Each structure stands twice: as C-alpha cells, then as structure tokens.
Amino acid sequence: MEDSAVFIWIFQNVTVTEDLVRRRAEHNNCEIFSLEEISLHQQEIEKLEHLDKWCRDLKILYLQNNLIPKIENVGKLKKLEYLNLALNNIERIENLEGCEELKKLDLTANFIGELSSIESLKCNIHLKELFLMGNPCTEFEGYRQFVVATLQQLKYLDSKEIERSERIKALQNYPEVKWKIREQEQAYLLKRAREKEEAQRRMQERKDEKQKQIDSKLGFDSPDSPQEKTNQAEGDGEQERCRTVENDDEDRKFWEEPTPYTPESRLETHRYIEEKRRAKDNGRESKKREKTAWTLVTAEGKVLNVNVPKLHFSLKDDEENNQIILDLAVYRHLDTSLLHVDVQPTYIRVLVKGKPFQLVLPEEVKPDSSSAKRSQTTGHLVVTMPKAKEIILAKQKVSASIKHSDCNIQQKNTRRNGQVEKLEVDPSKYSFPDVTKIIQEKERTGQGPIKLQPQKVTEVKKSCVDFENDEDVPPLI
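User: That's the sequence. What structure does it adopt?
Assistant: Structure tokens below.
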C-alpha cells in the first residue's frame, strides 16, 4: 500500500546555484557580477563552486554551518579579504594561494587533522588572523608553536595576539616541534582511516535493514484472497499505529546509538533528518490527494442538492427577462481561478476550491446562453441562466406596443427633420446691423489731437456767459 511504503531517497550534492546567489544578493539589487559580500550560511551546501566565475569582486564570503568537505573553486577571488568556513567538514587547508588579498580566515569547528597543510598559507602574505579552534589539530602537542613559526605574517591566532617573544621562541624550537607534529599527524590519519571504514560498514548495514523492511512490507501488502483484503482494510488503523511505533523505535535507536563525531556521522545525521522530513511531507501530500467521495447523483440518476463549502446563496426567478439568477456568496478575496461553474439543463454545479455546490433548478435552462460573473463589490458569483421555454404572450403584446410607439416617434422625428432641410439664411427675412458703421467717421484732415483740445476750450469759453477776463489777475498754474 502507499501509506506503508518505505521511502529511500537518493541524495545529490547540494551546490551553489545562481538562483541561491541572487536570492542572497537582495542588498545588491540581485546583481551578482558586482557583488562584494554574500552570506550563504546554513544552506546545506555540500560542494563549493561557481562563485569564482560569477562573483569576481567578492571581498567577504560567509559559508559557515554547511557540509562542505573541501576548499575549492575560490582561488580566482583576487579581492577576497575574509572567508568564513566554520562548522563544515573540511579536513585540510588547500587551494587558497590565489586569494592574494586574504586577511582573515575562519576554520572553526572543522575536522582539520593535517596541520602541516597550513604551509600552503605562506603565499597569503596579507593574512593576519587565523581561527582553528575546535579542530583535531588543536589537540596536538606544540600546535600553537608550529603555526606561529610557520606563518610569520600572522598577528592573531584563535583570537589571541601573537607576541614577538612568542614567535622568537617558536622559531628556535621549530625543527623539534615540526617533527612531533608529523608523528601526531600520522597517528590521526590512521585513526581517520578506521573511522571511514566504520562509517561505510554502518551505512551498508542501514541500507540492508531498509531493504529488509521494504521486502517484508511488500509481502505483507500483497493479499491473495478477498477475505485478506477485507481484513487488511479493517486493520488500517492498527497498522498506522504500529507504523508510528516502529518509526519512534527507529528514531530512538538512531539517536541513542553512540557514534564518533566525524564528517561521515555529521553527513549521515543530516541525511537522516532530511529523509524523515521528506517522508513526512510526502505523507501530507498523499493525504491532500485523497479527495472525499461526495455523492452528487444517486444510482437511479437523481441529482441531489449539495452544499459542501457551506455557502449562502439565493435563487431568483426573473419572469420579466425570462431567466433564473443564482447568487452564490463565495469568499470575497477568493481567486476566480479556484471556481469552476458547470451549468446543465436541470441543475448547476459550482466547484469552490474543489468542494462541490450543486443545486437542482426549478425549470429547464439553456446552458449555452448562460453567463457567470463576479461582483466587484461583494465578490459573489452571479450566474444568469435563460429559461428554455418561449416568452409568454403578455410580454409579446407589451413588446409589440413598445415597438409601435417607437415607430410613431421615429415618424414624427422624420417629419420634423423634413421641414428644415437647409441651413442657409435668407437676407430678406433677417437683417443684421452693419458693424462697420456703428461709429461715425469725422474729418480730421489737418487736425491732430493737440488742436482738438484748444477748440474744446474755446467752445467752453463761448458757452460760459458769466466769464470775465481780468488782466490784473495772474493766471492760475
């Protein structure tokens, strides 16, 4: 059965994709070619690639808390100043010679056991800070002296400043310390080889156990007789409970089993969690696919009234327009793409988010002439369905009288239009004033505006009878 299936997922290495980089570059308008800083932490990345081609101008790169096993594909980042690779599965330092401007390198909580691999950082002359806390190499005797003497450009190691006296002492004991480090490295590499073998053996055992579970469940889920099928259907609930108990036992066994902290165990834990999550999501999707079987039509062919979405509705018989109107109160903000309307001659069916609403109509309608619209104010679905029967006689008389009155109005309008056919004006019937003769012209030959004023003054003097010109009186100025 589908519910009892055991899902085995094929995991592929999660790499850096262009879509991931663009989503994490929102502060740069999603432009990656000019990106100077990016944070890709906690993205379950298992392989580091493409960044040296897409983001050549990177100065700060955060890659902590991923599953990266190897430092690679960053050598072309010439402007890179800070690289954070804490909490990954890195076992040696390599491929950083091309990062010419590298000033700070954080490798906290990795699995670096080859301490001699730090010699590759001698080319990074600008490197000032190095973090190796939480790595197996920090437990080696003479670890700090070896790093201080090897990388003379360093100023801070594990957040602690390197004194001048400390470097002089480390250089004096460098040959002896280097020999001790080599011996401890060899012992660690032998230990890592055994851990890898143990991890492969444990992984193979887990695969065999999964295969046995699949074989047993396939045999259990293939009944031969109908009686066995009936019994199996009756015991689905019990099987579900047993399956839950088995999953709980499997989880308890996985988490309580003591395992060393290695890159393999860290990767195995991540994939186990991912497998459980995907199996859970798949179970939810399968339940969503299982749709409830609603009875819409009986075995005898009778159509039923169904309202699964539990929506309010009203059915109106519009006799004037000879149609039936259904007003279905669907949700106001529901997307119209989630509605499916099916009009039949005797009933209407509306699917609202997959839930059926079905209503038997009082009269037969015309499905081809029906229309469905959404109200812009309430969001209701309004379905207009014309009736299949002809229009009644009373409405025909009314319509004929309306047509007759319309004809009379049109005839009157044509008569009125016939009286006035021209727009020309008859000059004999209408007289217009001559605008050019409103002001009478005066002869001004040889006269100017200066000569007009004394004439007016003389006229005033002549008209004034009581005026006396006394020479003894000085003139008024």
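The radius of gyration is 49 Å.
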